[in-house]
Amino acid sequence: MEAPSPRYIISRAAFLIAILIVFLIGLKYYKKHQRKSAIFAGLQSITSDSSFFQQFYAKDAHQSLIRAIGLIAEAKTLGVEPEDAINRGMGIEPKIFASDTDRKEPPVRERIIRTCLRSNYENFIKLGYTADFQTLTSLKQGEFPPIPSGPQSGQRPEIANLIPSEISPGMEKVIANLEIRPPHTEDRKPTDIELAAAKKLASDLSSARIIEQAVRDRIIKGLSPPAPAPPP
């Protein structure tokens, strides 16, 4: 029997190598797709009404927010923009062509969730974090690693309440009410921007029928500075 020619051997080897490359590319794509699906499922769990607005404990709310930021950051490494990851987490599928329905104002609950997660992800980035392995591992556990750079390097961020629990008890357990901020060594007064954001949140929660209108009014009153005393 005549031995295969070198040309035949090379062509068969090249064919097998091509098949192996295609298989590896397909496997990589499949794993990436599977991980994206897991990220979206994780975000859907966090953005559900029972999780986002009704946590039992403040610690659970904090950890859920941190995990959500970690999932959004990981999605970004897989080519999914934060806004798209948040939408998929709320069950909103991407559309190739926009329609008049897509241009309508989104439901208030969606707007609350999107605003919270987008602003907190931006704060995460502004603190100097990157989606490296160690950071993502910490975030999956519901913990922030030390701030990597900047004037507060080595410290950990704090999670503050937009609406203080002293004004509305239980708000510390609502993820929508949480904001990631640089650490502070002493108490400070909220800024005008933070007060405006808190009042907007109270109005949105009322519009979404998560709190009653009377509660909204009480919150806004508690956030408003007292009127100056009349001159004698």
Radius of gyration: 24 Å
- Uncertain runs: none
Number of domains: 1
Say how many strands there are: 2
Mean pLDDT: 87
Q: How much of the polypeptide forms β-strand, as a percent range?
A: under 5%
Number of helices: 8
User: Helical content, roughly?
Assistant: 55-70%
Order of helices and strands: HHHHHHEEHH
Task: Give a topology summary.
Elements: H1 6-47, H2 49-52, H3 58-77, H4 82-89, H5 108-126, H6 133-140, E1 158-161, E2 178-181, H7 192-207, H8 213-223
Antiparallel strand pairs: 1-2
Task: Give a summary of the structure in a few sentences.
This protein has 232 residues and is mostly helical.
Describe this structure in words.
By secondary structure, this protein is mainly α. The protein has one domain. Helix content is 55%, strand content 3%. The protein contains eight helices and two strands.
List keywords for this structure.
two-stranded antiparallel ribbon; 8 helices; 3% strand; 232 residues; 2 strands
